[in-house]
Structures are given as structure tokens and as C-alpha cells.
């Protein structure tokens, strides 16, 4: 027989998030003590506020997802015209990592036909089961479908002086050959730098939005292409999320109006694979919003019951280098290749 006594409110916004994620399971929210009508009304009002908090809570706080390892370590044959900057922006690999992996000196031009080792293994944050996830420190956009990473794309994001806003969004519309309506803030920057001030620009080879634009519920924010591919995988924008031309063309075909998404800021990530391997990734804290990556890794390992399975000397080196690549840190042997879903 159903209990007919009123609900006792769960205390605090933090408990609201815990309840949404299934963390509250003790069954203690019922009360068998009769209460005055005024308290009952207050309790119901509090529940309304609680539901509001659940709606407003970030998507990453209310969804469960397993962190995934994506990308691979593979051989790449240099093509005519290739540069390290181009390969870096295409695959999502820091230039310094490419140099170190291939014993290349700064300033050396690549010769066509040379084989390079490219390691673009990354850990997709546990944020959404379905939708778009952008992790700012990684400079990557992950497309999630039914709990799996179907694609990931290197992106350009807001420079430290013009940071990309964090938060949740939905796709509101999608436009091929978009018109760029220049925000007033950018017009003011044009004026300060002595450039011709424009308020809009139609489709064409000079339009900085490129061929495709995905509009979001975040006012003024777009996911769009570019006419400057080498800017990708850097912090160079006025806050928008910018992809290489081939990347935005692919993403445009895979998303739809109404898709949800989240922009997050996570500098340290840990992934426990089904075969027992454990990987850690640490990215530079460009916006100075993160905390000690060593402590973050230790906290994640403790919560996952992995503390004794990790070689902490390896993990400390990963945290210290912060090279933006996933490295194996368990006590077992290192595997050479990990399959992934990057565009090549």
C-alpha cells in the first residue's frame, strides 16, 4: 500500500544533483511524522525549487557515462606541402609531441614520403551519453551517440583574454554558407586595431565562419568552420568553437537541431579500459581554472578503486608534462596501438 505521508525535502542543491545522478538511494526522504499544513506547503514549495535545480544543473552532473579512450598511435606518410602545424591541427597532436616522437628539431622542414609516428590518443570526458562535448583544455570536440564516441575533432577555442564560455546548450539551427553577423565586441576590436569595421559578411572565401555554422542556445556562440585551418587546435578565437573545413563538414552531417551539448573544463582525465589497462591524460591549464592534476588523478583513482593498480611514478610524469596525450599508467606492459575514431 502506498505511503500517504508527505515527502520530506532533500536538503541543499548538492543533494539535488546527487539525487539526479542516483547517488541518493537510502530511502530516507519519507517521513511518518504528521506535520502541520504550513510545513507541508513549505515542503512542496521546496520540492518545486529542487526540481528547478535539477533542470538547471549542468548536463555532466546529471548523467552517467564511462570515460573512453579514443584515437591511436599510427604511422603517417608525409605528403607534399605537409607541415608539423598542419599535421598537429588535423589530428589533434601537440607539435612538441610530434617533434619528440620523431626526433625532429625545431624549424626542420618535412620531406615528402617520410614516415612519422603520430600519437593522438585522448580520453573523452564522462559528460554525456548522447550529444556534443567540448573540453576546453583538450581543444577537442567529442560527438557522443548512445554512450559511444563516434567522432572527435580538434577545435580552436577562445584565447585566454577572450575565454570560451562553459555550460550546457542545445543546437537551435544549422546553416550552410552562413552570413557572419559581427558582434559589437568584435566591431570594437576592429576599430581599436585600425581595421575597417563591418557589421556583417555574406558567404564567400573571406567569411571566417567557413562553409557551415551550427547555432547554439548560448547567445553569440557558434560551432563553425574556418578559412584559417592552421588556427585549429589553438586558443585563438573570440570564444566560438572552430573546426577545420573537413571537420565541420563531417560534423554538420551528424548533428541535428535539438541535440544537446556541454562545454566543460577538465584538465586531468583517467580511463580504465575493459582489458585492465589504465590511461591518464593531463592538459595545460590555459585558463587557470584547474587544480593540482596529481591530486585530481589520485582522487579519481580512489573513487574508481584503482589506486593500487596505478604506477604513480608514471602518473606523476604525465601530470608534470601535461602534454595533452593519453599515456598508459597501470603497472602492466604498454600496448603499442589503441583503436579510435578520429578523422584521418
Give an account of the 3D structure.
The structure is a single chain. The chain has an eight-stranded mixed barrel with strand order 5-6-7-14-12-11-8-15. The protein has a three-stranded antiparallel beta sheet with strand order 16-17-18, with helices on one face. The chain has 344 residues and is an alpha+beta fold. It has helices at residues 13-20, 37-56, 59-62, 84-91, 95-102, 184-192, 245-252, 293-304, 312-321; strands at residues 68-70, 73-77, 115-119, 122-124, 131-135, 140-145, 148-158, 167-176, 180-181, 200-201, 212-216, 222-224, 235-237, 241-243, 260-264, 268-272, 278-282, 327-328. A hairpin with a 5-residue loop joins β16 and β17. The chain has a domain at 13-57. The longest helix has 20 residues, at 37-56. Helices cover 25% and strands 24% of the residues. The protein has nine helices and 18 strands. α1 (13-20) packs across α2.
What secondary-structure arrangement, pairings included, does this model have?
Blueprint: H1 13-20, H2 37-56, H3 59-62, E1 68-70, E2 73-77, H4 84-91, H5 95-102, E3 115-119, E4 122-124, E5 131-135, E6 140-145, E7 148-158, E8 167-176, E9 180-181, H6 184-192, E10 200-201, E11 212-216, E12 222-224, E13 235-237, E14 241-243, H7 245-252, E15 260-264, E16 268-272, E17 278-282, H8 293-304, H9 312-321, E18 327-328
Parallel strand pairs: 5-15, 7-13, 12-14
Antiparallel strand pairs: 1-4, 2-3, 5-6, 6-7, 7-14, 8-11, 8-15, 9-10, 11-12, 16-17, 17-18
Amino acid at each position: 500500500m502506498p505511503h500517504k505521508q508527505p515527502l520530506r525535502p532533500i536538503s541543499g542543491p548538492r543533494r539535488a544533483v546527487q539525487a539526479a545522478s542516483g547517488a541518493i538511494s537510502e530511502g530516507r526522504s519519507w517521513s511518518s511524522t504528521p506535520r502541520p499544513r504550513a510545513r507541508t506547503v513549505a515542503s512542496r514549495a521546496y520540492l518545486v525549487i529542487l526540481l528547478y535545480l535539477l533542470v538547471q544543473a549542468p548536463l555532466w552532473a546529471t548523467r552517467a557515462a564511462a570515460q573512453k579512450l579514443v584515437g591511436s598511435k599510427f604511422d603517417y606518410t608525409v605528403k607534399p606541402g605537409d607541415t608539423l602545424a598542419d599535421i598537429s591541427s588535423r589530428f589533434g597532436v601537440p607539435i612538441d609531441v610530434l617533434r619528440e616522437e620523431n626526433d625532429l628539431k625545431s624549424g626542420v622542414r618535412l620531406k615528402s614520403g617520410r614516415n612519422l609516428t603520430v600519437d593522438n590518443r585522448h580520453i573523452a570526458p564522462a559528460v554525456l551519453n548522447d550529444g556534443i562535448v567540448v573540453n576546453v583544455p583538450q581543444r577537442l570536440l567529442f560527438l557522443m551517440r548512445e554512450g559511444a564516441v563516434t567522432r572527435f575533432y580538434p577545435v580552436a577555442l577562445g584565447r585566454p583574454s577572450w575565454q570560451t564560455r562553459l555550460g550546457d546548450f542545445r543546437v537551435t539551427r544549422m546553416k550552410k554558407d552562413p552570413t557572419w553577423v559581427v558582434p559589437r565586441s568584435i566591431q570594437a576590436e576592429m576599430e581599436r586595431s585600425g581595421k575597417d569595421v563591418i557589421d556583417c559578411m555574406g558567404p564567400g572565401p573571406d567569411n571566417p565562419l567557413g562553409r557551415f555554422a551550427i547555432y547554439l542556445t548560448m547567445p553569440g556562440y557558434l560551432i563553425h568552420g574556418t578559412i584559417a585551418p592552421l588556427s585549429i587546435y589553438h586558443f585563438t578565437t573570440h570564444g566560438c568553437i572552430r573546426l577545420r573545413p573537413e571537420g565541420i563538414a563531417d560534423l554538420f552531417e551528424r548533428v541535428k537541431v535539438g541535440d544537446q551539448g556541454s562545454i566543460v573544463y577538465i584538465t586531468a582525465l583517467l580511463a580504465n579500459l575493459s582489458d585492465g589497462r589504465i590511461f591518464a591524460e593531463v592538459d595545460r591549464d590555459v585558463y587557470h581554472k584547474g587544480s593540482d592534476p596529481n591530486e585530481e588523478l589520485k582522487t579519481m583513482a580512489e573513487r574508481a578503486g584503482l589506486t593500487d593498480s596505478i604506477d604513480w611514478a608514471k602518473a606523476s610524469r604525465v601530470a608534470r608534462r601535461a602534454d595533452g596525450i593519453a599515456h598508459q599508467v597501470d603497472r602492466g606492459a604498454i600496448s603499442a596501438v589503441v583503436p579510435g575514431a578520429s578523422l584521418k
